[in-house]
Description:
Elements: H1 5-23, H2 27-33, H3 38-46, H4 65-75, H5 80-90, H6 95-100, H7 103-115, E1 120-123, E2 139-143, E3 146-157, E4 164-170, E5 181-187, E6 193-195, E7 209-220, E8 224-225, H8 231-267, E9 269-270, E10 273-274, H9 279-307, H10 313-338, H11 340-343, H12 349-355, H13 366-379
Amino acid sequence: MALDLETREQLLDTLRRFVAERLRPLEAKVAEEDKVPDEVIREMAELGLFGMSIPEEFGGLGLSMEEECLAVMEICKASPAFRSCFGTNVGIGSQGLVMFGTAEQKAKWLPGIAAGEIITSFALTEPEAGSDSAAVQTRARRDGDHYVLDGAKRYITNAGRAHLLTVMARTDPDKKGGAGVSAFLVPRDAPGVTVGKPEKKMGQQGAHIHDITFDGVRVPAENRLGEEGEGFKVAMQVLDRGRLHMGAVCVGVAERLIADSVAYASERKQFGQAIANFQLIQALIADSKTEALAAKALTLETARKRDAGENVTLEAAAAKLFASEAVGRIADRAVQIFGGAGYVADYGIERLYRDVRIFRIYEGTSQVQQLIIARETLRRGG
């Protein structure tokens, strides 16, 4: 259920103040220490950010997709590492449960997820299954009223902090592709679950990814999400939604980059005047603003379509593709506008330049989005 306009504006205004007063002053510290302070995570939980997409009956904010996108755009005017703290709870880590969970599963897990007391992760990617999501090799063998999981997952966001994993595993080895894959809710402290050390990454310090191994992990059959063999369907519907969320992330960072570029260009003087007066600088700003507006319009229009119950597989892929590619170009132009200062860590632009590079890779690479867009366009007859 959508918020009334006044409540929505109050929420967005609260997030703007939180970003300006709490998050942005901490960006350099988070990058240097590779850690978001615990007190900030607690404050984000108190604001309800961990439960944005979870129904109100389970303690969440119950935002519509459009409202979630607008909220994420505000949060991502700070370093995207902050959003990553709660991003899996809002998106890929919880939405399989919201969309496919039984009443008992929802009652057991969703209130804690919404409160930020239970951190979730989405364990799909493997050493040989990332873009090819249907190539999952992790096995789930039925043993009475349990399944036994064996295998490995790679680059799993928030796995080091997670309490609950949504794991894609192959229940029918005789079925190729997605048909033999099922989804499971696996507590991270289950015997046989091992989480590796955090990977060193190009950007987004403070947001961590880990490998996970499953060695004879016994999971009650009641922890299966949906029917046996429905795991790929769960993953694809979760990713449809996640791609819209990522489109909003990209728009938020893009708007931040443009605002910083305009502020710098208005102050920085060369040849006796502000560089904002030079038309070639104005061209960089104009191209960035146009792309950000287009990405925002596409993301929000698609969110409204999803809220109306329409199938948005094509449009969500297009929004994620366009927004993630656009923010990469906008970050590059921002470095150019800042010149030497854009290459120096003190100004934060080089950090954002590194941070946004992952957006063209996770939740489906740009090339995978192109395949989805082409397939759906051909299916719809153009």
